Amino acid sequence: MTPAATRRLVVTAGCAAALLVAAFTVYITTRPSEPMPAAQAQHGTPTPTAAASPSAAGPAWYDVPGLDTVQRLALFAQQLTDADADASTGRHTCRRTQSWSRATTVVHRDDTTICRDDTDGSGLEFGRVLPNRPGLLPLPDGSDRPDFATAPLFVQHYTRGNLQLMVPEPVPTDRVALTDAVLMHHPEDLAEAGPQWLVRQLMNLWMDQYLDRVHRAAALRVLADVQGLTFAGPMTDLAGRAGVAFTLSEPNGVYTIIFNPKTGRVLAFSEVVPKDREIQTIRPGLFGYRLLLELRRQALLPEPSAPPSAGPALA
C-alpha cells in the first residue's frame, strides 16, 4: 500500500441516527438551526446567493472586534467568495497534498496527488516520498519541500470501488444534515473521542471532496459547533501562503486549521502533541501537518510523470 493510500477514507456502515445525535450533543455547542430561505424551505435545496463583499457589507470577518467563535464563523460563511476552482467540472476530483506525519519516532514526508472518479470510485494516485526524518521535534518548517522534486516517483492505480467518497454526493448544505453525514462513521464512544474527532472528520471532507462556496459555508457552520475552538488570527502555512487560523486545544493535542480568508478553502491542517507533557506513551511533538496545494474537478486523469512544482496558491 502506498504511503498516502493509508489515509484514504473508506466508507463503512454507520450507527443508528438516534445514538449518533445523543453522543454528539455531549461535546458540541447546541445551537438552533438557521432559518431556511423561502426557496430552500419550499424546494429543500440551497439557493446560492451572491457573496457579501466586505467593502460593501462592513469590515472583513477577521477584522471585526468582540465576536465569539460562533459569530465569527457565521460572518465568515456569509462573506465567502467564489474560488477559481468552483467553476471546474468533470467526473474526477483531484487533490494534491504535502504531508508530514508521525510514524512512531520518525516523521514521514510525502507529496501526493490522488484523482478519484466520483462515479465509480476508481482512480489514480502518484507522488514522491522523502526518507523518514528522525525525531518528532522540531516541527516541520517547509524547508524540505524543494526536495520532493528529486524524490522517486510512485504511481498506483485503483479499480472501481477502491476510492470511496466520505460523504455521498450531493453533500448536504444544511448544518444538521451535514453534521450527521460527517459523523456517520464515528468511533464507538464518540463522547470520549472528543471535539477533535469532529474537527478531523471535517478536515478529511474539506481536503478530499470538492466543496463549492455554498458547501464551504455549511461546513463552517458545522465547525462553529465545536466546543473550545478559538480564533487564532493571521497565520502563514508551510507553503508561505497567508491565511487565518482557528485552533482547538485539548489535553491530547493542539489542532490548527488555516483558511484562505476570502474563499474559505482549507490551506493547511496540523495536529501537535503538547511539548510540555507526555500523553500516555506518545512523545510530544508532531502528529501531523497537511498542506492542501490543489483541489478541483476535472474531466481527465492527469499525467503522473512530471516532477511536482512548489504548488499553486489555493484560491
Overview features:
globular; 9 strands; nine-stranded antiparallel sheet; 8 helices; alpha+beta; 315 residues
Written description of the protein model:
With 315 residues, the chain is an alpha+beta fold. The protein has one domain (16-28, 66-298). It is built from 8 helices and 9 strands. Strands 4-3-2-1-9-8-7-6-5 form a 9-stranded antiparallel beta sheet, with helices on one face. Strand 7 and strand 8 form a beta hairpin. Helix 4 runs antiparallel to helix 8 (213-223), helix 5 crosses helix 8 (213-223) and helix 7 (195-206) runs antiparallel to helix 8. The longest helix is centred in the middle third of the chain and has 12 residues, at 195-206. The protein is globular. It starts with 16 loop residues before the first helix and ends in a 17-residue tail after the last strand. Mean pLDDT is 81; it is low at 1-55.
For the secondary structure, the number of strands is: 9
Q: Radius of gyration in whole Å, from Cα?
A: 19 Å
Shape: globular
Between the first and last Cα atoms, what is the distance in angstroms?
32 Å
Largest sheet: 9 strands, antiparallel
Helix content: 10-25%
Strand fraction equals 25-35%
The strand line-up of the biggest sheet is: 4-3-2-1-9-8-7-6-5
Mean pLDDT: 81
Note the total helix count: 8
Order of helices and strands: HHHHEEEEHHHHEEEEE
Low-confidence stretches: 1-55
Total count of domains: 1
Oligomer: single chain
Computed structural class: alpha+beta
